[in-house]
Amino acid sequence: MMLGLHVRSGGGVENAPGRAAAEGGETVQIFAGSPRMWKQPTYSREQGEKFAAAMEEHGLAETFIHVMYLTSYGTADEEHRRKSTQAFITALENCDTLGARGAVTHLGSHKGEGFEAALPRIRDCLMEVLASDTEAEVILENSAGAGDLIGGTFQELGRIIEACDNHPCLKVCLDTAHAFTSGYDLRTAEDWEQLLNQFDDAIGLDRLSVLHLNDSMHDIGTYKDRHENIGDGYIGYEAFRAIVNDTRFSDMSAVLEVPGIENKGPDKENLDRLKGLVNE
Ligand SMILES: [Zn+2]
Ligand SMILES: [Zn+2]
Question: Which of 54, 174, 178, 262 is 20 to 30 Å from the Cα of 227, by its Cα?
């Protein structure tokens, strides 16, 4: 498994690979711009070349761009859907410029209307995204399922992919903290196996593109989305031991989005905790 982390992209996106490498990362995830603002930069070719050179210099494997948190593809608010769709397309264009593998998005909320009402709208947005002239993967992240959040179950993600005619560019990001609080146990190797079986049944393991490895501040089934440092939360070390040693994913990127020991974001200590679990 290629263990990496989410880092800041401010002050020049080409500095992100160096930041990740300094913590011991092998793979990197960034936001393009602020996760809480619609405005995002469009990277120039020159920035893309500098970024690629930095990836090479630091020996990093893959890049993912996380789309801002504001996106909602199933909302009845047409303007919000339009902005979300455009933001996703811009993120994919940025991926292509940087040579990133894909853009990871949250699906947003159906705002009490129910998943079935939201599904055709999500489909229309994603089909527009998929029709854009971009090559990067279109990656949907599972949610913690709180309130009306879409994507809290593997079934919902599977239904969305099916509604998009099983488009080959559609992929899934599995966030361990979100899966856990939305009700999927993974605290033991057997639990992890069972979770993957459920993922495979509903989505297909071949759709899994990247893992977000986060412990959870809240217990299973609470639907709360608060990440904790590896081993310090309710998920615990046994889960991560099973995951980092899962040979099916030896070529897969896994990204930390934990608070960090000093609350400054994912850090070397958390990466070292994961590396310490890898069987020699
Ligand atoms: Zn996310
Ligand atoms: Zn995540």
Answer: 54
Helices (H), ranges, 134-236: 154-163, 176-181, 189-202
Please write the tens of the pLDDT for every residue from 77-129.
Answer: 999 999 999 999 999 999 999 999 999 999 999 988 999 999 999 999 999 99
Q: How far is the CA of 212 from the centre of ligand 2 (A)?
A: 5
Kindly list the structural domains of the chain, giving each domain's residue range(s) and its CATH number in brackets, ordered by start: 2-275 (3.20.20.150)
Give residue 154's region: left, alpha or beta (phi > 0; psi -120 to 50). Answer: alpha
Expressed in angstroms and rounded, the spacing between residue 141 Cα and the centre of ligand 2 is 7
For residue 124, CA distances in Å to 61, 76, 168, 229 come to: 33, 12, 16, 37
Residue pLDDT, tens place only, 229-243:
999 999 999 999 999
DSSP label at 251? T
Q: Tokens 């979770």 sit at which residue?
A: 195
For residues 211 and 249, give the distance between their C-alpha atoms in angstroms, rounded to a whole number.
9
Ligand nearest to the CA of 5: 2
